[in-house]
Amino acid sequence: MQGERTIRVLIAKPGLDGHDRGAKVIARALRDAGMEVIYTGLRQTPEQIVEAAIQEDVDVIGLSILSGAHNVLFPRIMELLRERGIDDILVIGGGVIPHEDIPFLKECGIAEIFTPGTPISQIIDFIKNNVKK
């Protein structure tokens, strides 16, 4: 790993969702896989998430949501990134997201959506294989 930069991941809980057990499990697994993880905590606005991603110089934003507001909050985050001219951050999402909503979220720029039951190893592999070097 000499010369390679550690992958930096921001785990964020957008909106009014007050449940973060899954986000914390993912954060720990990513850390155990050798990534540097920053967790924003609960109830973050899209603006706060994008600002934290910029300040922390992250490679990946992992959004976790259970509230059902993914079709509003995820696209807003992508919009804010585009407004700032940021196109080198891999954005992924997870949580309770209906399968019929996934194509729309991907059209908005979310690279992948991980629903409940996804093996953690699949998330780790996706990040390692898709992070922009």
From TrEMBL:
| InterPro entries reported in the protein's UniProt record | Acid_CoA_mut_C, Cobalamin-bd, Cobalamin-bd_sf
Q: What is its EC number?
A: 5.4.99.2
What keywords were assigned to this record?
Answer: Cobalamin, Cobalt, Isomerase, Metal-binding
Cited CDD domains: MM_CoA_mut_B12_BD
Q: Which domain of life is it from?
A: Bacteria
Annotated PROSITE patterns: B12_BINDING (PS51332)
- Annotated GO MF terms: cobalamin binding; metal ion binding; methylmalonyl-CoA mutase activity
Q: Matching Pfam families, A to Z?
A: B12-binding
Per its Swiss-Prot or TrEMBL entry, what cofactor is needed? adenosylcob(III)alamin
B12-binding domain ranges (all copies) = 6-133
**What class does this enzyme belong to in the EC scheme?**
isomerase
Alphabetical list of NCBIfam families matching this protein: acid_CoA_mut_C
Protein name, as recorded: Methylmalonyl-CoA mutase
Name the species this protein comes from.
Answer: Fervidicola ferrireducens
